[in-house]
């Protein structure tokens, strides 16, 4: 929300978009985005996801990484300064040791145990409840 009548600066809009994505907006079990045409107060319908669980997770953890890097070194994230590849491994940003987030959804296994899509969705339901 913007409490004043002024327009929201692009930098704040960019940060808010990253915050939404990093919160897991598109992950199973989240409130997500609802279809305003089909929604009623008693029967909420969500659009069917077009991304796989791995892609949804990648979007979430990449946004989290960018949001953390934005807090430490904004000019680097916005591309106005050159810097290290934050996704290649541990690096230093403005004197802070930085490590990118890692996925929590694995295609074929989780903690060494085989897992399928149903088990992954149940895992998300447990985490989000």
UniProtKB/TrEMBL annotation:
Highest taxon, organism lineage: Eukaryota
KW DNA-binding (keyword) present: yes
DZF domain span: 1-129
GO cellular component entries: catalytic step 2 spliceosome
GO MF, one annotated term: DNA binding
This protein's record includes keyword Nucleotide-binding: no
Any one Gene Ontology BP term: positive regulation of DNA-templated transcription
One Pfam family per UniProt: DZF_C
Record key words, sorted: DNA-binding
InterPro entries reported for this sequence: DZF_dom (IPR006561), DZF_dom_C (IPR049402), ILF2 (IPR052134)
Name of the featured protein: DZF domain-containing protein
């Amino acid at each position: 929300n913007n409490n004043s009548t002024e327009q929201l600066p692009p930098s704040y809009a960019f940060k808010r978009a990253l915050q939404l994505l990093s919160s897991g907006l598109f992950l199973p079990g989240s409130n997500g985005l609802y279809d305003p045409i089909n929604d009623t107060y008693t029967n909420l319908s969500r659009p069917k996801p077009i991304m796989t669980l791995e892609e949804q997770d990648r979007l979430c953890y990449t946004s989290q990484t960018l949001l953390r890097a934005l807090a430490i070194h904004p000019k680097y994230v916005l591309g106005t300064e050159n810097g290290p590849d934050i996704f290649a491994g541990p690096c230093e940003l403005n004197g802070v040791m930085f490590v990118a987030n890692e996925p929590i959804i694995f295609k074929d296994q989780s903690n060494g145990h085989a897992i399928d899509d149903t088990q992954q969705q149940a895992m998300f339901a447990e985490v989000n409840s």
